[in-house]
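Exercise: predict the structure of this protein bound to magnesium ion.
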Amino acid sequence: MQSNKRVTYWLILISAALLLVFTGVLYLQFHHSRLLSSTVQYSESNVSWNVFQLQSEALRFNNALYTAVLDPSSMDMDYLSLRYDLFYSRVDTVRQNPATEQLLEGTDYAPIFQRIDAFLRNNEGYFTQDSQQPLDQAVIESILKQLEPLQASLNDLSLASVHQSGIHAEHRASEVQRQIAISTGLIVFQLLLTLLFFYIVIRQIKQLQASREDLSQLANYDPLTSLPNRRLFLDRLGQEIRKAHRTKDRLALLFLDLDNFKDINDTLGHEVGDLLLQEAARRLGECVRESDTVARLGGDEFTIILSDLDDTEHVASISQAILKTLSDPFELDGREGFVSASIGITFYPDDANDVNALLKNADQAMYVAKEQGRNRFHYFTASMQQAAQTKMHLVNDLRNALANEEFQLYYHPIIELATGTVHKAEALLRWKHPLRGIIYPLEFIPIAEETGLIIDIGNWVFHEAARQTQRWRQQYQPAFQVSINTSPLQLRSETNSLEHWRRSLESVGLPGNAIAIEITESLLMDASFTKRLVAIHDMGIEVSLDDFGTGYSSMSYLKKFDIDYLKIHKSFVANLQQGASDLAICEAVLVMAQKLGIMVIAEGIETNEQQKLLQAMGCDFGQGYLFSHPVSAAAFEKLFEAHTLSVQVQDLG
Ligand code: C2E
Ligand code: MG
Ligand code: MG
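Solution:
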């Protein structure tokens, strides 16, 4: 933009300079042509002709006077006066020509004309109108005597003028040649300047056009894949909708997201990830017609507009072809990469009429495809719309839930299996929605994570649990411990949760070991977590690895991190029976945990048999509906007061 402005200034400057030069050139040409014309005006041939006429007139006057001398009787005074006057006027003609002096410069012109003037003055009286008396012979002879030398001088002058005019003519010819040469030079110069100017202007216009094309390329196309970007895609979708509306046709919008693309980026690096995206874009282009649009919205998200559809079945076969081509291995800089895709499909006008709604539908359908196991396509349905709307309302309500004090913690007893006593409980969050009643965490925690609200909610949970634990320690059990669920987002370095927890513990006067935090295995993959784990332990807080067995479950992580408790996920406990594979898994986990000095809590104990088996294996703690459902703090206090916080330890015999 800046450089365009500069170029425009330069163009204006050059134009102004050229205008100045052109004006100067025109002025010079005008000036020279005037010089030329004045040279012609002061034409020397005029002067020499005038001098010749004067010489002839002098001769005629002389002849007339001679005739009067030879034959005085026939003397005609009128005729003599006429000849005198004509001579006189010829003298004037010569003198009045402005070129005379210039041409006759260097001759005797001036003294001759002085003498002529003297002659005219002396004899004027004889040739006036009044004196028509015939002249004396003596007078005529005297006039003739004066006239003769003048005649001789005029002859010389006439010759001199002819000579001078020759020289001047030559001079003028060369001057004209020079003028023509100058004018031609100036015109050529002018022409060259004009050509140069046009060359510059045309080049500039081309550059501007090119930079405009570059800008439009940047504004409308994704630089990595050269596919239309979000902006151009939205524009095209709008156009296709209008076209389909006119022609009463149907169109399909596909929203495609690569599965596990993040893993490629994390393991092979972003450059290899870029190569994969380029190749994926190329493969997508091969699955559709020329008239269809494939666009990249960003990251690993692509959209495809299939227009002029006469058969919706066709969309399924295209989607199938896309899934197939994307699941073929990718050759990436000497390495092989694998991805799959999840595709959401929506139709105009069946599902929605406008760009935004179609995009939202396709996006929702894509999420369902992901949820159902990825590497598949899913059509948009009205129930998805319903679910999306419910979620939207939930998001809005969740924003106000903290301020409206709609959250409550329930406590789930953790039983020491060997003794049947309870010294621990897990705090579980409940949302008492004013219209919907109790909402369970599995429904709203993911939304809280998506919206970032989990940080404030998590801080509230910690503070509330700490406050409650302090109360119970004082009133009932001095060593009571509450374990708190955390989201990985809370433990990211920038959220500063640790600081908040420290202040909570201080404000209620609770030692760190009164609290255990439950983290999930995915957090252990984050290299920077080691440092924070040390800080957590420094505060005295214990750490539980929740839902063990459902994530990466890498033994090496367990060894590397300082974990206090390991919670076996309830799905393993649910299938516990003699001879079942889950029994073997639980046994293996227990053996490994014992070796590493980690205590084990089994979740989801619902039957006596499960309890017995776990007890027999030496599992430290158990949690489950067999003992109690999670209960409110008030209900939990009743358990304390009734001294029922112990359960019958099953007879292992
Ligand atoms: P979790 O930490 O694994 O908690 C155990 C879940 O299993 C609880 O569900 C509990 O009610 C349920 N449960 C306990 N015993 C049994 C049993 O015998 N049978 C069956 N079928 N279920 C049992 P809940 O309360 O719905 O919590 C679900 C998940 O929500 C929790 O799983 C935890 O990951 C998360 N969550 C709960 N509270 C919080 C919280 O304050 N913050 C965060 N970030 N997550 C929380
Ligand atoms: Mg838990
Ligand atoms: Mg759990």
